[in-house]
């Protein structure tokens, strides 16, 4: 099966193979290990791996680790885990930091060709000299240093003679270019910092705009697919490949970023949410990270289906987060067992049911997938129902339990509410009901009808469980800063998590972390791998059952 239906990147690849420009397709997924992957990265992964696979080509996983200040081996490991979990296998694994020596040589080559110089201006001065969209830039007073002097200074930069920020190496292109990216971009900076891979070997590090094209060329990447904000950097990308005399000439192609409503999609912001304690880690189920979504209960299939549905184009509008939910419902519908769980328990005593008696009722595991078979659920004199399924003074058209009303207990009997027990504060703490043995489910009883069916769990055998219900983490529709000077942190939903203590059916006792279920009427849930213990099951709600969203 094709991974990627026709799109403009695929068309370029077809043309390049037909014209003989390339014999095979090589792509790469190049994360910087400065955070955990998010759903936006999933799009890049799916495009890069999917397209190469459609042509029997290759995809590299390359850690773009050229900034020691922000990178960490923890991130490297999580990225590998997430790519695999999403269902992709890289043909080769590379670290950009393994090319530092090669990159240094290419920088020296630029100096020797008179195309790079060491600049003593400060970062602020460089910014000032760069000009604006309407104003041309100004040459640095150090721009005309001799090749010999530049070579010597660059070696000294490498040798650790200077402090951070004291000097940089800049490409010598054109300070008057209408494209600001070409106004002598900085290509090396000094950073006395320990690198997760190269340790203290280097104290100068290449900048992204210089390093990335070299990495692609060194690896023989044919199509370097990146997000649209790099469009203006393409001339610089091509300049670097050409002037550094790289043998292989990769082509940069941009596509529109994936954005999803009610969340933020930037590692910097996600890190802030973690560091400032808004969430309990990168894998908090409210995070749009792959690890957070996995912990919440999303499946790789649902993420892949969602991303494919968003297509490949140059535009980057925000996709409705409900579309993501649609795909996980679709994926889980036939796969996972259905069961009953009570998230806000209210005790019900069935006064005419014999004391001490317990019966096992038959229930389908998944009525939409009969192959999953049947389960047994105990029933006895005492059960729990949802507090929300009872009202003392119901409005019109309330068909659940209220004094004198009869409802069906799913898979069991009709019960009728006879008496309300309240505590000293007047809160309803227990209901006394009667049942009708004639009405047992599956017996074909047609004597009378009830309008409401509610779920329940037998009290003596019920397994205590914690339910974690989630609301969007970000309330603003796009989650971006607005013009009132607010930041995205002002849009964090203070009520994005509700924790409730309830009960589940006894046959759920053996559930393992990451097991998924549909709880009747409540939606799809995942057994939380972090908080679940041998004594307590913790369920994350993945998604409720219904949505108005249509593809
Ligand atoms: P962020 O802005 O979240 O920090 P990034 O682009 O800096 O993301 P990288 O580690 O450089 O993160 O990303 C690896 C690859 O994933 C890049 O090719 C990048 O373009 C792509 N990518 C990142 N975010 C998205 C997104 N929202 N949609 C599609 N692709 C993305
Ligand atoms: Mg990046
Ligand atoms: Mg970034």
Automatic annotation (TrEMBL):
Gene3D superfamilies reported for this sequence? Glutamyl-trna Synthetase, Domain 2, Glutamyl-tRNA Synthetase, Domain 3, HUPs, Ribosomal Protein L25, Chain P
Enzymatic class: ligase
Span(s) of short sequence motif 'HIGH' region? 31-41
Arranged from A to Z, the UniProt key words for this protein are: Aminoacyl-tRNA synthetase, ATP-binding, Cytoplasm, Ligase, Nucleotide-binding, Protein biosynthesis
Alphabetized PROSITE patterns for the sequence? AA_TRNA_LIGASE_I
Q: Which Gene Ontology molecular function entries are recorded, alphabetically?
A: glutamine-tRNA ligase activity
Q: Which SUPFAM superfamilies match?
A: Nucleotidylyl transferase (SSF52374), Ribosomal protein L25-like (SSF50715)
Instruction: Give residues annotated as binding ATP.
Output: 32-34, 38-44, 227, 257-258, 265-267
Query: Where's the Glutamyl/glutaminyl-tRNA synthetase class Ib catalytic domain?
Result: 25-333
* Segments forming domain Glutamyl/glutaminyl-tRNA synthetase class Ib anti-codon binding: 337-436
Q: Which InterPro entries match?
A: aa-tRNA-synth_I_CS, Gln-tRNA-synth, Gln/Glu-tRNA_Ligase, Gln_tRNA_ligase_bac, Glu/Gln-tRNA-synth, Glu/Gln-tRNA-synth_Ib_cat-dom, Glu/Gln-tRNA-synth_Ib_codon-bd, Glu_tRNA_lig_a-bdl
State the span of motif ('KMSKS' region).
264-268
Could you tell me where this protein is found in the cell? Cytoplasm
Residue ranges of the tRNA synthetases class I (E and Q) anti-codon binding domain? 453-528
Subunit note? Monomer.
What's the family? Answer: Belongs to the class-I aminoacyl-tRNA synthetase family.
Which named protein is this?
Glutamine--tRNA ligase
Can you name the source organism? Neobacillus ginsengisoli
Gene that encodes the chain:
glnS
């Amino acid at each position: 099966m094709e991974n990627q239906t026709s799109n403009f990147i695929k068309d370029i690849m077809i043309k390049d193979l037909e014209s003989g420009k390339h014999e095979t397709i090589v792509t790469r997924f190049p994360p910087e290990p400065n955070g955990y992957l998010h759903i936006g990265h999933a799009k890049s992964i799916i495009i890069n791996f999917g397209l190469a696979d459609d042509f029997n080509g290759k995809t590299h996983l390359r850690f773009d680790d050229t900034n020691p200040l922000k990178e960490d081996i923890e991130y490297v490991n999580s990225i590998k885990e997430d790519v695999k979990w999403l269902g992709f296998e890289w043909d080769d694994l590379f670290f950009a930091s393994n090319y530092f020596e090669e990159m240094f040589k290419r920088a020296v080559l630029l100096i020797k060709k008179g195309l790079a110089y060491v600049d003593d201006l400060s970062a602020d001065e460089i910014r000032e000299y760069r000009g604006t969209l309407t104003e041309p830039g100004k040459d640095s007073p150090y721009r005309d240093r001799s090749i010999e002097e530049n070579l010597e200074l660059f070696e000294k930069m490498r040798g650790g003679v200077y402090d951070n920020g004291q000097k940089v190496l800049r490409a010598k292109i054109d300070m008057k270019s209408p494209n600001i990216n070409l106004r002598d971009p900085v290509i090396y900076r000094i950073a006395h910092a320990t690198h997760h891979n190269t340790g203290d070997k280097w104290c100068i590090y290449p900048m992204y705009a210089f390093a990335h094209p070299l990495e692609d060329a060194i690896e023989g990447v044919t199509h370097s697919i990146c997000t649209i904000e790099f469009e203006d950097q393409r001339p610089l990308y091509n300049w670097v490949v050409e002037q550094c005399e790289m043998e292989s000439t990769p082509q940069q192609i941009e596509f529109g970023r994936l954005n999803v409503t009610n969340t933020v999609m930037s590692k910097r912001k996600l890190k802030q949410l973690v560091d400032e304690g808004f969430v309990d880690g990168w894998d908090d189920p409210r995070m749009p990270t792959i690890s957070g979504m996995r912990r919440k209960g999303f499946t790789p299939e649902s993420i892949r289906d969602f991303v494919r549905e968003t297509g490949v184009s140059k535009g980057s509008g925000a996709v409705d987060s409900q579309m993501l939910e649609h795909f996980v419902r679709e994926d889980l519908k036939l796969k996972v067992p259905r069961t009953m769980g009570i998230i806000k328990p209210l005790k019900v005593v069935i006064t005419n049911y014999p004391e001490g008696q317990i019966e096992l009722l038959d229930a389908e595991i998944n009525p939409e997938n009969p192959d999953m078979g049947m389960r047994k659920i105990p029933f006895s004199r005492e059960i729990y129902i949802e507090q929300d399924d009872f009202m003392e003074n119901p409005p019109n058209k309330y068909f659940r339990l209220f004094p004198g009303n009869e409802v069906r207990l799913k898979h069991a009997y009709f019960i009728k509410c006879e008496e309300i027990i309240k505590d000293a504060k007047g809160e309803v703490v227990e209901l006394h009901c009667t049942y009708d043995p004639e009405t047992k489910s599956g017996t074909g009883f047609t004597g009378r009808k009830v309008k409401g069916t509610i779920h329940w769990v037998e009290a003596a055998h019920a397994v205590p469980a914690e339910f974690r219900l989630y609301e969007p983490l970000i309330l603003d529709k796009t989650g971006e800063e607005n013009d009132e000077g607010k930041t995205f942190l002002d849009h964090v939903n203070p009520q994005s998590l509700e924790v409730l203590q309830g009960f589940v059916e006894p046959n759920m006792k053996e559930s393992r972390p990451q097991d998924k279920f549909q709880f009747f009427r409540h939606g799809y849930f995942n057994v939380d791998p972090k908080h679940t213990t041998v004594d307590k099951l913790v369920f994350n709600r993945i998604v409720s059952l219904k949505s108005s969203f249509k593809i």
